[in-house]
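Comment thread on ticket #2218

A.B. wrote:
> Attaching the input chain for the structure job we discussed in standup.
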Amino acid sequence: MTKYIAIDLGLKRIGLAYSAHKDIVTPLPSIIRKNRNQASDEVKKAIKEWEIDAVVIGIPLGGSSEDEMRRRIEHFMNLVSFDGDVFYQDEAGSSKEAEAMIKGEMKHLRDGRIDSISAMIILQRFLRTIKPQKS
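C.D. wrote:
> Ran it. Output below, let me know if you need it in another format.
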């Protein structure tokens, strides 16, 4: 079974989520971004720790910022220097959906939980689109 990590790449926080089974996606602790190198090193560490085969990155598809975001993401992933497959998944509405999921539990707490739940939603969307693989 392929092990995936999803990345919700933000300027202040990076949300992460993990899945080794199509039906189960777990949010991981998010990364507080101090600078590009520190953030990419921490993502690299998570990829190694979880023995990741493929990365799924949220991107705003179809919007005016898609090209700019794709460039930023590609640059960030070059810093991570990941050799496996990298997939893009539309992240439209994932942050709002994440906020709705934890509404009431915390009011605008910026500890990264929303970012990782957003990454979880992005990965769930991606996993719903892939075909079952024969083992």
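A.B. wrote:
> Thanks. Noting for the ticket: The domain at 4-129 is CATH 3.30.420.140 (Nucleotidyltransferase; domain 5).
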